[in-house]
Amino acid sequence: MTDWLDTVRFNIDGLVGAIAQDATSKQVLTLAWMNREALLQTAATREAHYWSRSRQKLWRKGESSGFVQKIREIRLDCDSDAVLLLVEQVGGIACHTGHERCFFLRLEDGAWHDVEPVLQDPKAIYGDG
Amino acid sequence: MTDWLDTVRFNIDGLVGAIAQDATSKQVLTLAWMNREALLQTAATREAHYWSRSRQKLWRKGESSGFVQKIREIRLDCDSDAVLLLVEQVGGIACHTGHERCFFLRLEDGAWHDVEPVLQDPKAIYGDG
For A1-129, where are the alpha helices, taking DSSP H only? Predict the structure, then answer.
């Protein structure tokens, strides 16, 4: 039964934007991309999967870092071209920079300022290599 | 001073994804798109502006409905290709369907279910015409 997948309007590249929001803190963690397979795997395994545009491959969030996103809810928007995931962020770190989330830059006085702490050194997350 | 705009990595269509989140309730309201001008106008006027892909024009959110999004914060993500707006949603309705927000469809048992109320009839918001 994948009728629900046929409802989703993937773009010309076969992708749909997918927002991950922490189900507890309500912080918006990431905006990533899913192809049909990523959305199917996300629903089937209850762990977030995305399409890596830079690596051009399916990517299970946390496969290197261990910081997986466990799915609480999957939402679709009114015109079926955006997904919202409510997740439990394992490790409390969603961003490869070691920040809690990717949106740590705030516009102030005409410049972007990093206003959130690095919780763990990326070298410790991914190793030196 | 638009150095901060030069930091943003617009895609091949000149667009960047922009999430709007209610600053008070923390609900994720919408995922829309901005070109450079939309982001500039958003920062300058403190009201959300987007690029309408269907109408191919700059669009001040709420210009028809009155349901503008007043800007509390503008955030950028770690790789500079996604924007997060913290907004005060005037009228409490962000979606053209009359729902509070666009993400009212939840995946359950292999189907999308509308799980949030319509707060106002769209005909009352936009008129019959």
Answer: 3-7, 36-45, 122-126
